[in-house]
Amino acid sequence: MRKYFFLFLSLVFIFAPTTQALAYSKEQVGLNAHWALGGFGKDSKYEKRLDESRTKWVREHFYHEVLMGPDRGAWLSRYDQTMNNYRDLGISVVGMLAYGTEHGDFSPPTQQEWENYVRSTVKRYTSSVRVWEIWNEPDSPDFLEPNNPEHYVPLLKSAYEVIKEVDPTATVLTGGLSQLNRSWVERLYTDADGSFDGIAMHIYTCREPNHDLLRRQLSEVDAVIQAHNPGEQVWITEAGCSASGGISQAAALQYNKDMLDIVFTYPWVKKVFLYNIRNREEVNEYENNFGLLTVDMKPLPAWDWYSLILIGPYDKERTGLGKEEERAADLRRRMEHSFGAGLIPVSAENWPQFVSAYVYGGYPVQALVQAARFGGKTVHPSIGWDSWKNTDEYKGFIGKNWNEGRLVYAYGQPRQLFDTEVAKSRELQQAIYSQYDSPRLGISFDNWPKLVKAYVYGGYPVEAIVRAGLYDFATVSETVKWSEWRGSAEYQAAIGKSVPLKAE
Which of 309, 303, 181 is nearest to 243 (CA)? Predict the structure, then answer.
C-alpha cells in the first residue's frame, strides 16, 4: 500500500461537504404546464411566466378524444401553436398520450384506434416532442378501467412499436404511476418485454409527516430497479403539494423543496415535473390548489423559489455531452500533471463538480488543484470564479504551498501547473538555442526532462544545464537544489569547463 493512500482518503472526505454538486437545475426540474388544454385566454401569461422562469422542460397532455374527435382540426391548430410557442422559448416537451375516444372514457381503445391515434400524433409532433409518456396513472381506477397490468401493457407495447417506427430517436416512458408503486414496477419489468426507455411515476406524499412514506417507497422501488436494471431512468412526471385542507402555501413550498432534495439522492431519478404551473377552478379544493401560480397566473411563494432554480451548472446552459467530455479529459490531464496519473485526490462522486467548475464556473486549473489539496476552499459549487476569487477563503488558499513531504514532485517541491511548466521549458529551450551550439551539448530525448526539472524546480541556471550533458551531470544533481549543489566539488570542477557556443 502506498504511503499516501490515507492522505488521499482524507482529502476526499473533507472535500465532499464543501463542494457537493448542486442537486438539481432546470434541466432536472420541469413543470406540468397544460398550456394547450388549459391556457385559453391566457396565452400571453403562459409565455411570460415560462420565459421569465427560464423553464426548460414541460409536460403536456395530448388527449385522444380531442386530437381524433369531431373538433380535431381546431384542436390540432391549437396544439400546433402551443408547440411553436415552446420551440420559440427553447422548451422541451414530454407528451402524454392517453385515454379513450370520448370524454370521460378511461377504458383501453381498440388496438386499431389506439395505434392510429399514436401514429398520427407522434408523426405530426415528432419535431416538437422528444419524449412520449404512454397513459396517465394506469394503476389508478380513476384513469384506466380496469386498472391492471394485463390491460395496460398491451397499450404500452403497441405504442412503443409505433413510436419507434415513426421516430427511432424518441424516448418512450411508461405511464406515470399514481405513486411509487413497487408491485407495478415489478410487473413492468416482467411483462412489458423492454417496451419502454424509462419508467414514469408520480409523487404525492405531502400529507404524510416527516417524509417517511416517501423515503420508504423510494427504497422499495430502488430494490426493484437494482434487481432488474440498475441503470434505469425514472421520470417523476408529476409531484406536488396542494395548499388546502390546512396546508399553507409556505408548507407546500417546503414540501416541494424537501421532496426534490430527497428524490435526487437516487441516481436513477432523471427529472421531476412539478404539478402544477397554476391553480385550477373547476374541480375541488384539493385538486384546485397545486399551483405555483394563481388561477390568473400571479406568483405564489413557490413560483419565486422555482424561478430561482438555476438553468444549469453555475447558471449556464450546458454545452452538450461531447464538449463536456472533451473538457473533462483536458482537466484530468492537467490535474494529473500536478498529482500523477491516476492520483488526483477527488472521489468519483465529486469529480463532476470539478468538471462543472472548470467548464461552466470559469475556475482555472490552479484553483481546482488547490481545491483538491485543501478541502475545496478555492472552488464554490454554485458561485463562479469571477466572484469567488475575491473571497478571503479563496485568497487564503490559492497560493498556499503544499510541501510537508506530501505530493512532492521534484527537489522537494509540488508540481507546478501545466502551463507554467511548459512556459519554463520553452524559456530554457530558447536560452540554450540562442547562445549555445545545442546539437553538441549532449542533450537527448532521455535527459531533457531531467534538465527541465532542474531548471524549473531545482533553481539551476542555464550555465549549469548546458554543461550537464557534457560532463556526466556534474553540474546538475537530480535531487539536490542548485543553491546547495553549487558548493560541491563535482560542481566546482565542471562549471568552469568549456561549452560549445552558437556560431556567429
Answer: 303
Last residue of a domain, one of 243, 276, 311: 311
pTM: 0.73
DSSP 76-135: HHHHHHHHHHHHHHT-EEEEEEE--SSTT--SPPPHHHHHHHHHHHHHHHTTTEEEEEES
Average pLDDT over residues 162-179: 98
How far apart CA 176 and CA 187 sit, in angstroms, is: 14
DSSP 209: G
Pair type for strands 29-32 and 269-274: parallel
List the grid coordinates of 67.
386530437
Query: Mind listing the pLDDT tens digit for each residue in 95-127?
Result: 999 999 999 999 999 999 999 999 999 999 999
**Pair 333, 436 in one domain:** no
Residues 80 and 202 in one domain: yes
**φ, ψ for residue 235 (rounded to 5)?**
-110, 120
pLDDT at 374 over 90: no
Nearest-angstrom CA–CA distance, 450 and 499:
19
User: Rounded CA gap, 297 and 49, in Å?
Assistant: 8
What are the tens digits of pLDDT across the range 429-470?
Answer: 999 989 999 889 999 888 898 999 999 999 999 999 999 999
What pLDDT is recorded for position 140?
98
| Count of CB atoms situated within 10 Å of the CB of 26 | 21
Residue 96 β-bridge partners: 61, 133
Dist. CA 21–CA 57, nearest whole Å: 21
Q: Residues 354, 371: contact at Cβ < 8 Å? A: yes
| Bridge partner list, 239 | 203, 274
Residue 284: cis peptide before it, omega within 30 degrees of 0:
no
Total number of domains constituting the chain: 3
Whether 49 and 137 share a structural domain: yes
